[in-house]
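WP5 quarterly update. Target: IS6 family transposase. Source organism: Rhodococcus globerulus. Length: 234 aa.
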Amino acid sequence: MVSSTYKGFRFSREIIAHCVWLYHRFTLSFREIELIMAARGVEVSHETIRTWCARFGPEFARRLRQRAPRPGDKWHLDEVFIKVGGVRKYLWRAVDQHGNVLDILILGKRDGKAATRFFRTLLKKQGSRPRVLITDKLASYRVAHRKMMSRVAHRQNKYLNNRCENSHQPTRQRERAMKGFRSVGAAQRFLASFSRISPYFRPPRHRMTAIDHRTEAAIRFQVWDQVVEQAVAA
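Structure tokens (predicted):
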């Protein structure tokens, strides 16, 4: 018995999930995905694909998050500026020592108040505190650390924070492909899903043999199929 998750959609679960995966894994536009699907004999408009990504992207990301392992005890935090509607905003991101994205948040500033807000959101979602917190030398982190995690060891060194800085690269690529974001809400919703789905299909290949990488990729696709199937199971 199929749940109401896909009710009202005339295309199959496999086609919908594949389009959502293409959009979140690669720097493709909706029109480019429309062309790819047309080459495979599937006639679907780019507006329909956009609706699928907005509807199912957050759900698939949530289910992947439920299956994720417990976060490591060493958290890396960093912030980069992005353009939203032509206005500079700041994307705050936290990852653990394994490169798993813990949370992201778009804010208008990067002062102590903004850092404290991000810390509060991060702690609420994770439900626990790290053993070590690693940031760059931005003074705002010291303010938030003093207020929210004063008992957690805090290391401020830009060279120790490459893990989080590297995690920003796919977002930068997507931002360029999309020519910026139109609104904070839309950017937050998209990046929350993108930051969960895209890294999941980017295993650390430089630390694997070719055989290990293929095996890991196969496992991740199996989990993805289960996530998509779970969304329609009764």
